[in-house]
Amino acid sequence: MKLKYSIVATTVAALAASTAVADIKVGFIGSLSSDTGLSTLRGAEIAIDEINAKGGVNGEQIVLVKADTGQDPTEGVKAFEYLAETEEVDFIISGSIDDVSLGWMPRMQEFQIPTLDTWTSYIGIIDMVVEDYDSMRPYFMNIASDEALATLYIDFGKDVLADQMGWSSVVVLAEDTAFGGAITGLVTEALAPNAGIEVKDIIVYDIATVDFAPIFSRAVDTGADFIYLVSSVNSQVVSSQYVKLQVPLGMTGVNVAALGQEYWEDTGGAGGGISTLSPVPSVGFEMDPVSQEFLNTYQERYTSRPIIPHFNGFNAYFGLKQAMAAAEEAGGFDLDGWVPAMEKQDLILEKDGEMWLRYGFWGNDEVEPRTGRTYPHNARFDITAPYDDASPSMVVIQWYEDGTNAVVYPEKYATGKFTVPSWVKK
After folding, report:
1. Which of 19-28, 210-219, 286-295 has the lowest mean pLDDT?
2. Which of 32-56 are b and which e, b meaning 16 or more Cβ less than 10 Å from the residue's Cβ?
3. Between β-strands 354-360 and 346-351, what pairing exists: parallel, antiparallel or unpaired?
4. Are 312 and 259 in contact (CB under 8 A)?
5. What's the topology of domain 5-143+288-346?
6. CA–CA gap between residue 410 and residue 386 (Å, rounded)
7. What are the tens digits of pLDDT across the range 296-319?
8. Check: CATH 3.90.170.10 for 147-279+393-413?
9. Nearest Cα to 171, choosing from 204, 207, 144, 127?
10. What is the pTM of this model?
11. pLDDT tens-place string over residues 205-243
12. Do domains 5-143+288-346 and 147-279+393-413 have the same CATH topology?
């Protein structure tokens, strides 16, 4: 694969003055051909335009340079090196998937460039911050880590899958990636003892798989009540085959393809009945006024997919503004000033007079009460109802057989009800 890089100056002042040289350079790292990467890129573009329109950061304008990872870990390392050595960026915003972030993480530790991950949720990276704060201090992750994701799924498993549906056993169907391994481990270790659901089998498949019939047959043969899918790559393939084969088990889990509004088209309309955990905001999610304004701007500006940004587009928009506010306060990106300023960033968005979303970070010594552990530089999340201290770590969304979608859990954010497809016996 030949890696291609492109450089683009954002609009407003940076484009208006063709002879001007930007004083602050922000680097984007991620896939330029995926909905995931484009969501982060576009959120960053809008934030930079708005910041520049208001005078920039300490009177300095911002330009954005881009490095394409192609969702490949090796290319991701090259991309980070390009941003660090050739472009000499001041700040990096990432839309990378987990495996790619893990690939370039040693370069981040080496170059010590302030970096914000907007998609990766791998708890192992937060563990690195816990274990080696000095080398990891430039790194922030403004999505709840997958340990928090698993915690919400345990609640969903108990409240809905076990208590409401009466299911007591599951077969895990997981892709062979770092993300797949992490989620599988968390779910299998916690789902049975906390939700009373037995794990009958764990089936790991290659991300290049195109024929899932034998895999689904094996899943059915386990006698499990439902399938838990863990898929972040090519998720539309397993989804559409589940529907076309009319697999006689309900299927939920983590399905990245189903996070986007294009899911229905991508599966050829064969996506009904699928439910998935999703960070917030998600499809089917009611927006607070500030997030809705960003979404309106996004849809006015971009006409190609993704027509609604994935959650990481919102993370990029709000997170980049927080990173630049920290630079404003610190007088630049020197880590001794910027890191403490970034750690203090805390944005609370309200809807109908109550906290709806929160963009802040856990402190180094703060212990999350339910898990009893620390999450330094991870997005602040709330995993205990009524979710009045921070955003929920995730929500569960469902696609129905008529092509509509809704949030089905937790109740505070629900816009619809959890169901199984018509061919599955309840």
Report:
1. 19-28
2. bebbbbbbbbbbbbbbbbbbbeeeb
3. antiparallel
4. no
5. Rossmann fold (3.40.50)
6. 9
7. 999 999 999 999 999 999 999 999
8. no
9. 204
10. 0.88
11. 999 999 999 999 999 999 999 999 999 888 999 999 999
12. yes
Buried b (16+ CB within 10 A) or exposed e, 204-232: ebeeeeeebeebbeebeebebbbbbbbbb
50-59, Cβ contacts within 8 angstroms, sequence gap of 24 or more: 50/321, 51/320, 51/321, 51/324, 52/10, 52/11, 52/12, 52/13, 52/14, 53/12, 53/13, 56/13, 56/23, 56/24, 57/24, 57/324, 57/327, 57/328, 58/327, 58/328, 58/331, 58/332
Domain segments of the chain as ranges:
5-143+288-346, 147-279+393-413
Residue written as tokens 């980070």? 80
Q: Which two tokens stand for residue 24?
A: 């602050």
Instruction: Take residue 354 and report the two structure tokens written for it.
Output: 């109550």
Q: Kindly state the helix (H) or strand (E) to which residue 228 belongs, with its residue range.
A: strand 226-231
Amino acid at position 184, single letter: T
